[in-house]
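Bumping with the actual sequence this time:
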Amino acid sequence: MEKYGLTDETIEILTGKAEKIMSYYDSYELDAREWKNYGKHRVYVTVGGYCGSSLKKTYKLAWVDMDNGQQITWQY
């Protein structure tokens, strides 16, 4: 996952939540996208669950507000 300025602490929190959500799947992968618009800087994080090597489901995990101390807004 590209960090886009996320701290290790924030990534650890996101990973912990993803582990709980994705316990049904064989493995999971976090993905992040940077979003800058309307004077706001956020990082949008999704998590994808895999059965074997096949992607089965992707969930919107959270928005991270980079302008506000990396405050996490959970989407799932």
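The tokens above came from a reply further down the thread. Helices lie at 8-21.
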